[in-house]
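Researcher: I need the complex structure. Ligand is uracil. Inputs:
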Amino acid sequence: MIYAPCLPRLGTFDAWRDAARALASNGVDADQIEWTMDGAECSLFGSGAALPAAQSMTVPKDFLPLAKLVCASRTTGAHDLLYRVLLRCRGNAALLDNRADTEVQKLVALAKNIRRDMHKMKAFVRFREVTPKGANRRQFISWFEPDHRIEELIAGFFTRRFADMDWGIVTPEVTTKFEGGFLSQEALPSDRLNLSDATEDLWRTYYANIFNPARLKIKAMQSEMPKKYWKNLPEADLIPDLIAQAETRVHQMQQDAPTLPPMRAERILERLPARPKAENIHACTRCPIGAQATQAVAGVGPDAARLMIVGEQPGDHEDLSGKPFVGPAGQILDSIAREAGIDRSAAYITSAVKHFKFKPRGKRRIHQSPNRSEISACRVWLTQEIATIKPALIVALGATAAQALTGNGTQIMARRGKIETSLEGLPVLISVHPSAILRSPDSANLRAALLEDLSTSRIMIDALESDTTVTPITSI
Ligand code: URA
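Model: Output:
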């Protein structure tokens, strides 16, 4: 008798498990089964004998997680192999531990391919914003072509990571949607979506910034970021040109080496491995501000932070408490960062100038912006913080931070939302300072701008966290 269980495109694993349990618990031989996937073949072979009623049976605890992965495989014979191993596990509970067994080896290799495909999907999905005017949640969409049927396996990852926005991921066979906190999936044939939006430019600038021609390893890069993913990556069309120009750029860098600020900065970074101590900063006499302040305020955050947020200088509250962004501007920053999905405790937060500059007026201390020479005198401490933290992305809040980081403090509103390069060669996303929101008549727009920029930084950091493509070729 031949059985032909037909597995649906969604719920594949549950269907395989139910059918396999019914068949294996009744001792049905693997040669009597033709596993088919829902689709054309299903209607051809879907007329097999009715499945027998399942009897109780047990399997080794590692079998089901492995089966869940392998069920997503497109490799011919994967479901059959799984069933054969299941049958053999019944008489040998330790079978999966026997890595010399050929069938176990094949199964483990199939599972490894699935994990790799999931890893690529985590790394290379690029969301494009499609929020309609007036929507209260931001909306994003993405197109991806996985090698295997991994959409169900991966949905939980994207749901956890992007829980605070609505999104859709469309693949050639499945549409996954997360709307208003609810996940849904539909087996729906789709053609490739052509998507583009403003974040494409950010990705391209970011990638061009972090691309270090001197560290170019084309083989490593292509094995991490195979060409087939390029068409869906906004930054990918830069790659051929960047590779083509790499040799000339390296040659140019070698020629320019003695006078290039980033090279000089790199050498300084190597000599300054520890983050600066507040007492050392407080003792600094490179500019006069410190003489007036209660204490210096150094940055806070984990050494491993990937995101660094740089403000202007401590205010009255920060000067008294010794911690950055704890006063009114800090409260605004906290609330917008939270809305943008940034966990403040995971970011490194600091200011371009480490002492509070003010003018006494009666009992009050009135904030004064630091001038260029004070910003530049204080840069040594920021340099030391950057060298220790090595962030993947820096957000500059306002003109002072932009000046300190990039050497250019002009016209923030024309630059905000864009990525520039720090003196160390790291990507800097320019934004507005939260205290401007407190002071400006245009506070609603400034708030929206800061929210948008912090959301962007969070999306970039999230994507980079699962993206190994940048590590082999960059200096971050
Ligand atoms: N503004 C800043 O730039 N930094 C602080 O720590 C507080 C306010």
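Model: Summary of the prediction. The longest strand covers residues 174-179.
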